[in-house]
Design brief:
alpha/beta, Rossmann fold, Dihydrodipicolinate Reductase, domain 2, 2 domains, seven-stranded mixed β-sheet, 11 helices, 15 strands, 35% helix, 28% strand, globular
Amino acid sequence: MARIGILSFAHMHAESYAACLTQIPEAQLTAIWDDNPERGRKAAERYSSQFVEDLDAFLALPIDGVIITAENVKHRSLAEKAAAAGKWVLSEKPLATTVEDAQAMISVCRDARVGLGTAFPCRYVPSLMALRDAIAAGEYGEIYAATCTNNGQFPGGWFGVEALAGGGATMDHTVHVVDLLRWMLRREFVSVYCENGHLLGRDTDLDDVGVLQMEMEDGIIISHIASWNRPKSFPTWGDVTIELIGEKGVAFVDAFRQKIDLYDDGAMRLQWDYWGGNPDLGLIQEFVRAVDERREPAITGHDGLKAVEVTVAAYQSVATGKRVLLPT
């Protein structure tokens, strides 16, 4: 039995991860900590867990692993404390807001001999898994280019505050696609050019649209749009799409297209209920296995670092107006 704690319910994904833990027989949501006590107590009530207000007391509990779903800039400090207490760590994406912080998280977990994982649940979307398998089997031959999107609703709150989020839509909605392409194509990114801005009038000064032109090893060209362009009335939060152009054909995946149209008089709008596989459940099940087996999670801290490198380079490109080369 893997005893798991959740550090903060600041990020909306904490709700899904907590629900997943209650569905896994081999796992127990042992405790919840939050620097917002009211939010933490309510979450503990919802998931029949205990709330511990003091962080040191929380980490002193017999917990095997923690899931960090705090504001982006707090990931490093919470990971360092958890690693020092001997806990396995799964951090919400982005792993950190700077390359230095991401590297520090990897180092401290390595030195403490605990596993560090990054929450990229899109790797567990069935259609994306099938595309990866088809690419690996050579069905598309050499891959030449890809066009991707990750458009969503503006989450509001701390996501619009640079001191807590570290960046806007470019940071929030680029890391998923970067990770998926590294995972599918088994190539690293070598450069990025980005233009972004506060264009949609969202309640923030941060960028709400980012357009990226990237290159991967072997000359694979990637274009990507990251945005908070979905209005509040949109049927769902957003999308993840990938269109690959290959030597033997073209593949297009809309990762969350498996949906039912729901006309809800209570909400007074059309909603889309997703009926496909639960990628969050796949992510949490794998983390629980990693904790039980005392090994590195499948989606590692290094994977998180590589996505952070691209995102940070994108903001450097915006600042300089030039293409930025990535670390080799």
